[in-house]
């Protein structure tokens, strides 16, 4: 219990320093002074400064993820994706230093735990669109496009003085991306062979009439169609 309270105190202090002065303000010395602990305590609990920064990112991201995962799914998965986009951009604008900590240092194969959790939520939203037959590209391509566009939009808005931010820019970018990866609400037929293949690949795990091997094979076949058509 004492360990948890100490950890929480350190993370809170580091979060406040991050919000006030950015990443450079979160030095071990500053965190120790703000939280009233000695540096060995920080290293024992977090390993190193990077471990502490990741804990700070998770702490700040927790409320955002709670709101995002608490959104009740509607009958329209595309509309749910819109709401997810708006939450993502809103979080970045409200917590610019934390957002930069999570997404600002992209490295191949390296992702913060907060970013991984957010990616899992986005993948779930994309999967629902695929299952509805409204995804016109493969799930991975759609998720990557939505993620990259959302991050780029958020960083662009963060970089602008608040009084210069175009209130309609995020919505315009959001709708452009949605139009690129989804069809109108007319089912998979409107997306052509790729849309049908994406829908079948997404639904394959839910076809009890097929064996596990058959479901896996069906998904593999449909993925080939998506790749060859893309």
Query: Could you give the order of the helices and strands?
Result: HHHHHHHHHHH
Examine the secondary-structure arrangement and name the CATH architecture of the largest domain: Orthogonal Bundle
What is the number of helices?
11
What is the beta-strand fraction? under 5%
Low-confidence runs of at least 5 consecutive residues: none
The biggest beta sheet reads:
none
Give a count of the beta strands, DSSP E runs of length 2 or more. 0
What's the structural domain tally?
A: 2
- Alpha carbon gap, first and last residue: 53 Å
Indicate the CATH class of the largest domain. Answer: Mainly Alpha
Describe the global form.
globular
Say what oligomer this is.
Answer: single chain
Q: What's the helical proportion of residues?
A: over 70%
Q: How would you classify the helix and strand content by structural class?
A: mainly alpha
According to CATH, the fold-level topology of the largest domain is: Tetracycline Repressor, domain 2
Gyration radius, to the nearest Å?
A: 21 Å
